[in-house]
Amino acid sequence: MMGMRTTRVVLAALNAKYIHKNLALRWLYVSAPADFDVSIVEGVIRDDPMHTADRILEKQPDFVGLSVYIFNAEETKRLIRYLLEKSPDLPIIVGGPEVTYDPYPWIQLGVAAVVRGEGEVVFWEYLQGKSTQSIVTKEIHSNVIARVDLQKLETFEPPYFLPFDQEDMGKRYLYMETSRGCPYKCAYCLSSLEQGMRFFSVNYIETLFNALKTSDVKQVKFLDRTFNVNPKQALGFARKLRDLPRSISFHVELVGDLLSEELIEFFIHQDKGRFRVEIGVQSFKRETLLEVGRFSNLSQLKNVIRRFSEADVHQHTDLISGLPFEDLASFKDSFNTLFSLNPFEIQVGILKLLHGTRLREHADDYGYKYDSHSPYTLRSSNWMSASEMMTVERVAQAVEKTYNSQKLRKTLQKWITNYELNAFDLFDDLGKTINSLPRPYSQKEFFAAILAAVLPKVNNALVDLIDDYYRLSPIYPQPFWAEEPMTEAQKQLRKTIRTTLDSRYRGIKHLKVVSRNDTFEGNFVWVYPEGGQKHMKIAFNDNFELESEIRYETPHRDA
Ligand code: B12
Ligand code: SF4
To answer: Which DSSP category does 530 fall into?
Structure first.
């Protein structure tokens, strides 16, 4: 008998990767009225949808709530088909940004209802039969996009440290929000559709920060669209975060040209990598920025990025290709300008035409041709042909593999500056070379390919690449270049170096002397000690006295 037991609800989502978590489901979970028995099932988009469907169905739910985003939409559709195949009468309710502005195809797919906007209140009211506000079903058509009162959310148990999350707390990001909404109106972005900003109270946020102290959390990512909207408050939060255990690092999104001097100084003076900042540039073309509603102060923006680079702040910067009025030549300029500022990472994104955004609504005016399935990637525009978009895509991948991976970032910066190369064109060459490699390829093949690609443009590229190659190799690697046999003089020198080093380091397993010429001018050697110790680069002066020693850790970069 139904009325005898509580209603069972399974909230489910497919994340992009295991390291991500779905905060929306956790908010729904903590806001559930007492008469619901709620559980969460999370998978990743690569999972077999049949398997996820089984995990959901074995809980024998009365209702299933699915969280839909651009990054899981196609996979979630598949999951819904399986669920309905196995359990045709199961009421499935979908919510999330991807369905909020495009609910009807989901009704056609067979879901019982679509929740538009923030679900914490309206979802439960709907299940309780109290209200159909912000609900779309076959019969109901609400145009209201739900917004919750954040102060009401503060009355629930916080969604961040739930018992079932404790086990893998240290292995996944902790997503946290101090605000919702965005004051800006960028025409390609969903957040531009929200009216006004709402903030959690300072007390509430600081209590959460305190709770971090005793948690296993390693990485906190703030979901705030602009962490520095309120500069004073942001600085206060940043200082509180700095004082938390050093094992925790933080990621925040900033509007670069609006950073206060105090905040700039703050980020400059933190331990490297403790705070990762994300700064959206999108384009340096004024006409483009104005058309999409971004009124950036470009000289201030450049100034901030440059200062962060000089201080080695881990800053992630974004460009979007395909915006109105941006042709390949101007995009190259935007890219080369950003590259010259030497940020830690440059993400070259291709425009995605999101449901509900101004750019999608005006797609015809801009001649936009884009994929009909998520993530609705732009293929061509009035200003960029399909093949030019593919060039950008290739450059984006090459930047990921060579620059953002930090494998060759400093070397590329050096070459491009010293030889006055066109950064975009060089990455295009690298992209072509990398694409021609067999998959999967080894580090050795990768370096050999890079060498071949740059040799025509960069003298002495080999010496720089050797440096990166050894730096990146925790175990002694095979040469990626054709080695000349050592001359007698070189052999003799190598012996001398080994003797010098032997007295200082016990157990040298591999010793690589790298020479610029016959006489080992600018001598340095790579030393791989025995038993898992860190490898080192050691420099000598002409009298074979040690000049410097750098120990390397295995390079690490998160997902
Ligand atoms: C984390 C994140 C990611 C992560 C994935 C996280 C994961 N779980 O796997 C990563 C980094 C992979 C990612 C990637 C991308 N993302 Co993203 N991402 C986010 C981000 C920052 C946080 C989402 C979040 O958790 N918010 C907090 C929760 C509480 O808010 P919410 O999501 O709005 O949820 C509320 C409602 O939507 C609703 N709701 C949600 N689920 C459900 C379920 C039910 C049953 C109900 C009733 C209600 C409901 O209630 C919730 C509570 O109020 C948002 C921006 C943001 N700050 O929200 C962008 C955002 C979701 N991403 C966006 C975009 C465009 C992308 C990219 C395309 C970016 C790019 N240009 O490459 C890529 C995807 C690329 C691809 N190939 O598919 C867009 C959304 C587009 C869309 N239609 O979904 C957003 C909104 C950013 C924006 N402002 O434009 N993203
Ligand atoms: S791109 Fe950033 S600043 Fe612009 S509307 Fe979206 S979240 Fe706000």
So the answer is: S
Residue 490: the pLDDT is 74
Distance from the alpha carbon of residue 165 to the mean position of ligand 1, in angstroms: 20
Residues of the chain with CATH 3.10.450: 488-552
3-state secondary structure of 367: coil
pLDDT score recorded for residue 205: 98
| Positions of CATH 3.80.30.20 in the chain | 160-383
**Portions of the chain given CATH number 3.40.50.280:** 7-148
| CA distance linking residue 336 with residue 187, whole number of Å | 24
Residue having the nearest C-alpha atom to atom 13 of ligand 1: 71
**Backbone φ, ψ for residue 171 (5° rounding):** -105, -5
Give 11-67 as a DSSP string. Answer: EEEEESSTT---HHHHHHHHT--TTEEEEEEEEETTS-HHHHHHHHHTT--SEEEEE
Do 324 and 286 form a contact (C-beta atoms < 8 A)? no
Residue 507 confidence (pLDDT): 67
How far away, in angstroms, is 84 Cα from ligand 1 center? 25
Computed on alpha carbons and rounded to an integer, the radius of gyration of the chain in Å comes to 27
Q: Is 191 a pocket residue for ligand 2 (Cβ < 6 Å)?
A: yes
Sheet of 135-136: strands edge to edge?
36-44, 7-15, 63-67, 92-95, 113-115, 135-136
**Structural contact between residues 462 and 484, judged by C-beta atoms closer than 8 angstroms:** no
Mean pLDDT by 10 residues, the chain (559 residues): 74 98 98 97 97 98 98 98 97 98 98 98 98 97 97 98 97 98 95 91 98 97 96 97 97 96 98 97 98 96 98 98 98 98 98 97 98 98 98 98 97 96 98 96 97 92 90 88 81 79 72 58 71 77 75 52
Q: Which CATH architecture has domain 7-148?
A: 3-Layer(aba) Sandwich (3.40)
Query: Which class would CATH give 160-383?
Result: alpha beta
- Cα of 394 vs centre of ligand 1, distance in Å, is 26
**Measured from the CB, is residue 7 less than 6 Å from ligand 2?**
no
Q: How many angstroms separate the alpha carbon of residue 526 from the centre of ligand 1?
A: 45
Cα separation, 130 vs 125, whole angstroms:
5
Name the residue with the closest Cα to ligand 2, atom 4: 186
Single-letter residue type at 324 = P
Name every protein residue with a CB atom under 6 angstroms from any ligand 1 atom: 15-16, 20, 22-24, 27-28, 65-67, 69-71, 93, 95-98, 115, 118-120, 123, 175, 177, 189-191, 223, 225, 349, 352, 354, 375
Residue 121 in contact with ligand 2 by CB distance below 6 A: no
Q: Where are the alpha helices (DSSP H) in 372-475?
A: 386-398, 409-418, 423-435, 443-454, 461-472
Residue 539's pLDDT is 79
pLDDT at residue 132, as a whole number: 97
Which long-range contacts link 503-510 to residues 24+ away (Cβ below 8 Å)? 504/546, 505/529, 507/531, 509/476, 510/476
Half-sphere exposure of 517 (CA within 13 A, CB side): 3
Q: Could you tell me whether strands 174-176 and 135-136 are parallel, antiparallel, or unpaired per DSSP bridges? A: unpaired
Q: Which CATH number fits domain 488-552: 2.60.40, 3.10.450, 1.20.120, 1.10.3470?
A: 3.10.450
